[in-house]
Amino acid sequence: MMTDENPLFIVLNAGSGKRDATATEATIRSVLDQAGRRYDLASAKTPGQLPTLAKRAVVLAQQQQGSVVAAGGDGTINAIVQAVLHSGRPFGVLPQGTFNYFGRAHGIPADTAKATQDLLEATVRPVQVGLLNGRAFLVNASLGLYPQLLEERETYKQQFGRNRFVALCAGVVTLLREHHQLVLGLEHEGHTRLLRTPTLVVGNNSLQLEQIGIPQADAVEQGQLVAMVVRPVGTLALFGLLCRGALGQLGEDANVISFAFNRLIVRPHRRRRIKVAMDGEISWLHAPLVFQVAPHPLSLLVPPRPLGTSPTEAREATA
Prior knowledge:
The protein is α+β, with helices and mostly antiparallel strands. The protein has helices spanning 21-35, 50-64, 74-84, 101-105, 112-119, 145-160, 164-176, 206-212, 235-246, 311-318; strands at 8-13, 39-44, 67-72, 91-95, 123-127, 130-132, 135-137, 140-144, 182-188, 191-197, 199-203, 225-230, 256-261, 263-268, 273-278, 281-286, 289-293, 298-302. It folds into 2 domains: 8-128 and 297-318, Probable inorganic polyphosphate/atp-NAD kinase, domain 1 (Rossmann fold, 3-Layer(aba) Sandwich); 135-293, Tumour Suppressor Smad4, CATH 2.60.200. It is built from 10 helices and 18 strands. Helix 7 (164-176) runs antiparallel to helix 9.
């Protein structure tokens, strides 16, 4: 458990989620002020400010034996984790996004006041981190159709609001458009296979994998990542996969290949650089792509749970 002597260095993404950033900041400050907890809160007006503010928070946390806290959605958390992972400092989360898979997977409530209050009594739990060419991801990393879907979903959210219905509609529109097949060489456990696919997704979040129905979801809790590859299919079949995922039955579809691994090398055919998404954030990386589990876990601040309560029960209680 952290003590009152350990200050919190909070980085808030003012543009994350659908909440009023001013009200969110006021809530955080009110809870911490009432508790008499030392803290520093820096607000990012644009996503581009997050890396700089995250590095500043890490330096201060190292100097004062404090913790770094990310207030935002999964993309915000990802941006701040890049700075925190190798610092050795504890990391807290105040979820503000649309889906909040990372926070929900670890029993962290979406209610800002409750999540902030829980930070005051938090305990440290080691949490697995995935790496893609050395960059950290906590929920998933992908290439092909999925990054395109995420990119277009963000455009729709900016126009129509941040909620799950808008996200679903954006996904439908993306599937209606023409999409290209990737040719990928996959190296895994000493074997190489060549396949065509519209998308490859690597998961590091058991909650998300469970919800879409991937049978290897438990592998994340056992120190592995999970790859999902879609066979070459048409638009109608892709709609079917979208529906199966929404119903938690994606793993039952014969067009989906999934497997757990510790290290996977992906070689895109005739591509030196390729667009990828990590926890919803889009970037370009040089090939080959190397997916692996980070050698050191993240020291996550999690709410205390009653004796005998499992992690699954804890996260269900905050859903």
